[in-house]
Every structure is written in C-alpha cells, then in structure tokens.
Model the fold of this input.
Amino acid sequence: MGNTVTCCVSPDASPKLGRARGGGGAAPGPDRWADAYQAAAAAGGGVGSGSGSAEAESGDSDAGGGPHLQHISDREFPDDLALESNPSDHPRASTIFLSKSQTDVREKRKSNHINHVSPGQLTKKYSSCSTIFIDDSTVSQPNLRSTIKCVTLAIFYHIKNRDSDRSLDIFDEKSHPLTREEVPDDYYKHDPDHKHIYRFVRTLFSAAQLTAECAIVTLVYLERLLTYAEIDICPSNWKRIVLGAILLASKVWDDQAVWNVDYCQILKDITVEDMNEMERHFLELLQFNINVPASVYAKYYFDLRSLADDNNLSFLLEPLSKERAQKLEAISRLCEDKYKDLSKAAMRRSFSADNLVGIRRSNAILS
Done:
C-alpha cells in the first residue's frame, strides 16, 4: 500500500515485489495505519473499497468540520469481552494457542510415562564450561523459519482443539475458493496437519518477502479475530482467516507493505475484489483495533518458544564464537552506558538543590 487509504485496488503491481527491501518511504507503523483504517471506517467505505476518496457523513462531523474519530483506547468493551481476559490486547492474559496445546502435551507425557517410552536420543544441545550454545532468535530479531514453524503449530492446535465450528461466510472456502479446483463436499471434515499449514504460510511469506515479526503479529490478529468475532478456526475457513491476518499484519508492520493485487499474483485464482472484501470484513470484525503493544508482542514471542519446547521444535543452536561474543559484549556495554545516563538524569530530577551536597554512597560490604 502507498500513502493513501484505497491504493490497494491499484491494477499495477506494487514496488514491494521484485526489489530489495529497505529504502525510502514512510514507515506505515501501527499508529498511521490505525488512523487510516479508522478514517476509512468513519467514511463508511472501509479499506480497499475502490473509491478514490472518502467523505464523512454530516452526522459524524464535529464542530470543527472534521470527522469525529473515537480512539481505540477510549472504546468500551462488552462485559463478555473484557480487555484483561483478551490475550491479544492484555499482556497478562494467557495466549489461547498455548492453553489449547497443553492438553495434547499432558496426554503425550502421560502416555510416555505409562508405556515407559524412552525419549530417544537427545538432540538438544546444552552449554558447558568450555562451550556456550546460543540460537540466532531474539524477541527483536526472531528467526524466520523457526518462527513460522511455531506460528503454524499454534494454528494447528487452534484447529485441532477448537470448541465448535462457528464461522462466517466471508471466510468459508466453499463460498470463496482460493483456487479453481473444486472444493470437495467433505472439505469441512478433515483437519489439516501441521506440514500442510506450514507449507501454505511459508509460501506466502517467501513470495511476499515478509519478516518473522510479521508472523507473530499475524498470530496476534488471528486470536483477536477469534475472540472479537466469537468464531472458530476450522478446516472450512483456516486458509482465508490466515490469509486475512497475514495481509493485515504485512500492511501494519512492514515498511513496504504488500498490496492486495500482489497476493493475487501469488494465489493466481483469487481476485482483487475478493481480497478487498475480506480485508474490510476482517477490519470490521477487529473493530479496527490493529494496535499491538510491545508487551503483547513479547508475550506471544516467548509463548511461541514455550510451545516449541513442549513439542520438541528446537531452535538452531550454534557455539558462541569469539566474534559474536565481542559483538554481544559491545551491545551490552552500549546498553549499560545508556542505563547509566538515564540513572544520572533521574537522580538529578529526584533531589532538590539543597540535598545535592549531602548525597553519599556507602560502600557495599560482602561477607
């Protein structure tokens, strides 16, 4: 998407595909996209509706002549959708996918214990006095392949341990097929396995050049949709729900967002109109709440790592080399310097001029 709200219906391919990442252009960012989406909602057209401009109705304008837009944080949530209980909004609420996976994990451990099944050869590497093993995945720079594996495993548990088959027509693959192949009549009966989900998501991320952070935001939007809309992700709708979450996450997170028409080049048989309609419905069901706080993002990242540990999806570990140790030490020193500067500034603000002379620091006594 570009700098306007409705550019996703452009018939031309976006500059995202076929050129190197990075470069100029304003970063979309959650705040900017939230304002754009709310403006589109106030205009009544949504995003990707095809209109060149959006005009707010006179009843929605304030005294200053502009549309009155309520901020997301000022909205009231229903009693059955309390913010504290929604994992995609509140950092202390447990993620849904981790809760759904625990049933299988406990049953597997219980079965292994009863049947005296050996865990087999241990493939996980552990650090020792002479060698330190670390992986290349951090909360700020997750490993792409490992993150996609964890996110698709979370989707797999969502489908497998769903409560029911509540869905909406806009996400039904029979009503809105992604390919020209005929959808079998019993398509809603067979749960996809983890490999099938992984191949679908991996294809989209590889073709659209999306990042690992985008995969985590995709999972946040997916669980937010299931909570807000009170639906379930099941065999009949999982592809379109995942596609809609990826589409929205890429526009919010990436500096150079993938346009809707680009997904039509990846999925050859889907139309731009269908993509626009699905995006509009997705946003309306989210109540245009596309904000992902840093604390929520971090919670999902670490819960995904816990999910990987429970299911023996190990992150690639490598011995700590001298070069990497030096880089980590340099980063650590930089953080310490920043922390010292902040501490000094806070101390200057904490004491009045009368007390500055009398400040003393006693030496610590180690016994």
